[in-house]
Amino acid sequence: MNIEALAIPEVFLITPRVFGDARGFFMESWNRRAFADAGLDLDFVQDNHSRSQQGVLRGLHYQIRQPQGKLVRVVSGAVFDVAVDLRRSSPYFGQWVGATLSAENQQMLWVPPGFAHGFYVLSESADFLYKTTEFYVPEAERCVLWNDPDIAVDWPLLAGNPPLLAGKDAAGLALSACETFP
């Protein structure tokens, strides 16, 4: 497996070893020992699966209490995946990194606690899987506005059309108004 730090060094793009032939392929999407050997000693408590249609944007979500680290991947389709640093003590506070994750490239993204996370569906639909280091706490969930100009995520919106948003995502707060981490 190849683990590459992105422009925010705590966010990693992970490319697993894939063994394939005419019958299909095999890959390890999670191996505690291999991840720990690479410096990611993680303990996951919950697995989630979402399916979204093309043009859906989910995020930018985080939990102010029990912040979740997320290991995310796509098993059908393609998304543009984003992590935003919400740690005030970080030199990267308010900055974002993104990567295209797809069933084809089989890459994963590690989004550590203290980051907001979101994705935009590029394909006709996408099945998105993620493991979390903390349980979901609805009352602790927060949302940064997906198009906050202070963060300026360069979303690859298809044909320039506005994304399809849930009500909570459309009502996200500007970074300047959000609860953040120390």
Automatic annotation (TrEMBL):
Cited PANTHER family: DTDP-6-DEOXY-D-GLUCOSE-3,5 EPIMERASE, THYMIDINE DIPHOSPHO-4-KETO-RHAMNOSE 3,5-EPIMERASE
Function: Catalyzes the epimerization of the C3' and C5'positions of dTDP-6-deoxy-D-xylo-4-hexulose, forming dTDP-6-deoxy-L-lyxo-4-hexulose.
Listed GO biological process terms: dTDP-rhamnose biosynthetic process; polysaccharide biosynthetic process
Source species: Acidithiobacillus ferrivorans
Stored Pfam families: dTDP_sugar_isom (PF00908)
Keywords from the named record: Isomerase
GO molecular function per UniProt: dTDP-4-dehydrorhamnose 3,5-epimerase activity
Catalytic activity: dTDP-4-dehydro-6-deoxy-alpha-D-glucose = dTDP-4-dehydro-beta-L-rhamnose
Alphabetized InterPro entries for the sequence: RmlC-like, RmlC-like_jellyroll, RmlC_Cupin_sf
Subunit structure: Homodimer.
Pathway terms, separated by semicolons: Carbohydrate biosynthesis; dTDP-L-rhamnose biosynthesis
Superkingdom classification of source: Bacteria
Site (Participates in a stacking interaction with the thymidine ring of dTDP-4-oxo-6-deoxyglucose): 136
Its EC number(s): 5.1.3.13
Name of the protein in question: dTDP-4-dehydrorhamnose 3,5-epimerase
Gene Ontology cellular component list: cytosol
Record: active site: 61, 130
Similarity section: Belongs to the dTDP-4-dehydrorhamnose 3,5-epimerase family.
Membrane-spanning segments: none
